[in-house]
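Recap quiz, item 2
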Amino acid sequence: MASTLGVAVVGFGWMGRVHTQAYVRLAHHFPQLGLRPELVLVAEEVPGRAEEAAAQFGFASTTRDWRAVAADPRVQAVSITAPNFLHREIGVAMAEAGKHIWIEKPVGLSAADASAVADAVAKAGVQGTVGFNYRNAPAVERARQLIASGEIGTVTHVRVRLFSDYAAHPDGALTWRYERDRGGSGVLGDLASHGADLARFLLGDISALIADTAVFVPERARPTGATAGHARAVGGELGPVENEDYVSCLLRFASGARGVLEACRVSVGEQNNYGFEVHGTKGAVFWDFRRMNELGVSVGASYQDQPVSTVFVGPGDGEFGAFQPGAANAMGYDDLKVIEAERFVRSVAEGVPYGATLGDAVRSAAALDAMSRSVVSGGWEGVGG
Ligand SMILES: NC(=O)c1ccc[n+]([C@@H]2O[C@H](COP(=O)([O-])OP(=O)(O)OC[C@H]3O[C@@H](n4cnc5c(N)ncnc54)[C@H](O)[C@@H]3O)[C@@H](O)[C@H]2O)c1
């Protein structure tokens, strides 16, 4: 019989819902887990939203004040799924209150914010898991193993792309995402944070980079009411978009490999076109999130005209076997969050970290900070962190 872990969720927008669904599904996909999440509290500032969450998912209680979560002895673990500007304050407060945290990327507005949360987690001796879900895809894990095994030779270069149209519509509301104070960076924190993490996950640390950014939709209408996700607003007062829609970046890795990272939130015709192409001296591996369970793999000794095979991941690749019985049965985005929830809860159960940690968040954020510095300096910047 599994013992229970009292869980709270802070911020019940898109990610709050996805984290909650993941907790609920843990028992379905990972019945062997020794800890069973129990939804005890949801904190949400929009009136009525927490109550709706409780009615749908069975949270025992609700609050509009996240500080009540830190003070609640029933709560042992907290999902922090509020906007970026709250990550630092809430993350540090929860860790200091002795709560384990599962916190969304990019963990604050800067590497300093991510470091503050990482330090608080380390000092409190609690576990901290970060929402870099794309590395949880079984195909990405297999790609990482393939690269590490040397099957594609010495890695020479990678291209990481994250193109989306979620902000392409001119009526997309001027939510917290477009404001420096509440969102921090734009597509850097939103998408390039995932790209930097994927690049590191596959190729190791990034040592230096040079970046360029642009704003393509400079004004948006302010929303007149509460928003969640990528809401629309028509007719509201126009305000300035304060952070970048687009980034392109050249990367140098500590290994000597080179890379290109490009991300855009206003790419018409692109829906979640996220992926990578990793090239080595003897082969290559390709991944596209939209065909999440497939890899393009080119290995052999031909060098030229070497064919590319499509490999469907299956049981034995990452956590695929917890979701599907055989290769080419599709997994989806939310499944990546169930895997992340499992790693978080297993970290708590065993007292050792699994999956993406706050250390990974600090290193991703350090790359984003270096991109911002590079835009100002016009030159190459070292990536610390
Ligand atoms: N890992 C991923 O793939 C992924 C995808 C989307 C968003 N995210 C991250 O998740 C976080 C949330 O993004 P989202 O898309 O869910 O945003 P959202 O706007 O849909 O949800 C945020 C919620 O937080 C609530 N909130 C704001 N201030 C609050 C406060 N003081 N107390 C309690 N609740 C408060 C808002 O009312 C809203 O319901 C962001 O950090 C974002 O970067 C990650």
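The mean pLDDT is 96.
Residues 10-16, 43-46, 49, 66, 81-84, 86, 104-105, 131, 133, 190, 227-229 surround nicotinamide-adenine-dinucleotide (CB under 6 Å).
End of item.
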